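Incident log, structure service

09:12 report received: a user says their structure output differs between two submissions of the same chain.
09:20 pulled the input from the user's history:
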Amino acid sequence: MGKETNSVVNILCSKESPQNHTISLLGILDSDEFEEAFLVMPKLQSLRAHPIEDIAQWKDFSMQLLESVAFMHSHCIAHMDLTPANILVDVELDDDFQEVSSRRYCLIDFQLSRFMPSMDAAVLNKWGMLDYLAPEVSDKVVYNSFKANVWAIGEIIKTEGMVD
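09:34 re-ran on a clean worker, output below:
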């Protein structure tokens, strides 16, 4: 984990807020053998293991995802790799959270996440999973990573909302 990723993770995990749907950080293990640090997080389930089953769950999923990204953006952090694979589900909730929702969705994988100097900051890179990259994402023309995050959220909400 790079220095910037470590800073992003520490900031996101230290913020107490009902809108913070980033995965909890239990600890960071540094190793003399490896250049990378290892994050210790709770064991949660993949979104694929617990698909959205009805419109109420889809609305809840959508709201939690929107809150999470708005929370990150309010701290000038762009995720840069929003995909269903980077969303985990906590189905074993404590009583306090179950009053609000039957599931808690958590964003993970902050390796590509970046602090931005402002909400208007432009970037030049083409990171992430192709199906969830906004049309303007490019390694040749600058774009706004926050707007690209919002586009990715729309794609995720659309594809995950397709219940049988």
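09:41 both user submissions now match this output. Likely a transient worker issue. Closing.
09:42 reviewer note: The chain has one domain: 3-160. Helices lie at 3-14, 55-74, 95-98, 145-160.
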